[in-house]
Amino acid sequence: MGIVSQEAILELQALMDSVEEPLNITFQNVHQGFRAETLVRFLKAREWNVAKAHKMLVDCLHWRVQNTIDDMLAKPIVPSELYGAVRDSQLIGMSGYSREGLPVFAIGVGLSTFDKASVHYYVQSHIQINEYRDRVILPSASKKHGRPITTCIKVLDMTGLKLSALSKIKLLTIISTIDDLNYPEKTNTYYIVNAPYIFSACWKVVKPLLQERTRKKIQVLPGCGRDELLKIMDIASLPHFCRKDGSGSSRNSENENCFSLDHPFHQQLYNYIKQQSLITEPAQPIKQGSFHVDLPEPAAEETEIAKSLESELQKFEKGNMLSKSTDGIKTDDD
């Protein structure tokens, strides 16, 4: 870390020392004792501009207070059938750890349908996984390895990616914006696997729009990515859809399916949230209904990416329709 970087950290630290309650309390939930590493994340997200990083961090803390994010891990999605439906349509899980101790999160981008619940339930579920990662999993990993572990690895499975992805863009943009503004620089590397042709076409359009910092984190692997991923993690931590070529994100895989509600990660997460809810309000019945969070306005970059994706997918749709119509035209020879 260079001298300028160190100076920026100290400058931002001095600014954060003057933060008053309740912002200071929620800041402790954000940094979990790794204050310097947290300041670095926000500085990186604002290209080491101290004033912009300070505003971003303070805005994040206000968002947390206004939306009671500190209580998010005490707000289970009930009944359990609804939570199961969310899990079945928002495919995400944790498959294990890299050899460096970073949690490995698996995301079924192509087969997630987001059609079993309202937007607010999916946002609630996403934030809960973020908070559980940051307040339970990462501190535990740091303690185990005796050093700060404050980021994770994400493996994105594109199996099943279709033109219907057009309907998911708005929700995915909301989730992405929440992460960019309030959980910056939490992902060390994004590995993209099982990418169909439609992804390749969309990637060509989106890649130039991404910040260089983000582009450098994304690696598109051949096939299911098994061989490349085994260089950084053991096979036990490999997501189920990376086990062999063409395995895909089957919802009916063996117990190793890390998207399944029966997977140890989801069992531990759900039980943790239920226990926290009983500690917070032991005499109160668990309320049904989603935990509403203010949905942010996407940044200009996010909006441009979403529009470009929509345009590219619509081109595909028109191309497919044209292809089908020409296939159905009989020639004079028929």
UniProtKB/TrEMBL annotation:
Coiled coil: none
Cited SUPFAM superfamilies: CRAL/TRIO domain, CRAL/TRIO N-terminal domain
InterPro entries for this protein: CRAL-TRIO_dom, CRAL-TRIO_dom_sf, CRAL/TRIO_N_dom, CRAL/TRIO_N_dom_sf
Pfam family, one: CRAL_TRIO
PROSITE patterns xrefs: CRAL_TRIO
Transmembrane segments: none
The protein, known as: Uncharacterized protein
Signal peptide interval: none
Upper classification of the organism: Eukaryota, Viridiplantae, Streptophyta, Embryophyta, Tracheophyta
